[in-house]
Amino acid sequence: MHFVYRSHYEGRLSKRVRRLPDETVLDWFRRGWDCDDPESWVENELGDDVYGLDSIFEAAREHGLPRPATTSELRELLHEHLYVEGDEDSIRLDEHSLRVRTDDDEVELAYFFLDDEVVASAAGRLAYLFQSWPLPGGESGLTPFAAEVPVTVVAPGAGDGDVSTYAVFLTFYDGESLACTQPLVFPGVGLRELAGQLRTASPGTGAEWPPELLVLRALVAPGEDAIGPALERCNRWPGFNLNAEPWPNLPDDHDTAHRHAMELLTTGQYVDGRRPDASHIEVGEHLVQVSMHCSESFGYQQWFLFDTRWAATHPDLAQSLLRYGNHWDPLGD
After folding, report:
1. Is position 126 within any domain?
2. Which of 17, 43, 151, 297 is buried most, with the most CB atoms less than 10 Å from its CB?
3. What's the pTM value of the predicted model, to 2 decimals?
């Protein structure tokens, strides 16, 4: 069985993954039910603290709760005694998985127990959870690929090619920090053409652009065809933290926006312990990935740009990444 902790405190990809010896979720909880020190047991099992999880074992000790014999019994006990910040739907248990959403009064967190059966059968939903940095590159021939989750179309009709580019920004600016920005798609635009497309597209028409995309567009230099240099400049942008300053109130005209953005790069100040030198950027032909250090307290935020050539080569990983950006629960809809 596998455990995944989706937490902004957990390194480059903001998640912690552990392999557990138990076959089922029920087995794991039964094994720890009578532990003498719930906090230490959870930390030893899962690599560190998991917010609120030890509360169920503390309740078992305090109230002499019987060890659950079935998934139904465990569900009742979790809903009654597991500490979460959220409603009843924040705890989702079935025969093969437990998915929990909570928050620590600062940011949202989620954790998942997933048995081997669901990991094997739902790769298109779960593959990204087990991926370490960096994601694999490579591309194959042109194969159809379409997102299985809702995406926002940016600049519809702008491209007429056979390849499209998706953008997933795993970013946040307040305590509602999971799945904040719906994934985006540039239809008919490959990753190699994205810089040019950003320069000519108008953010003031169509769907609202997220601030990350506005900054990226502004930091593409006039005449620049590669996206890599603009991403390096984005990493030096003095915002992208919980204070969200400076907010990119940039004009639609690209040349003017670029001048304003470049001025901010030289005059802005980093706050919250933001360290651009601690960020990681990988630029490939069909996949771009950024793990941007944004805060001393809340670590990294992630940007992924990939086109359908990469997605067709790694369909499970691509679909699960889009889903990860779209919803806190990879097995939910």
Report:
1. no
2. 151
3. 0.96
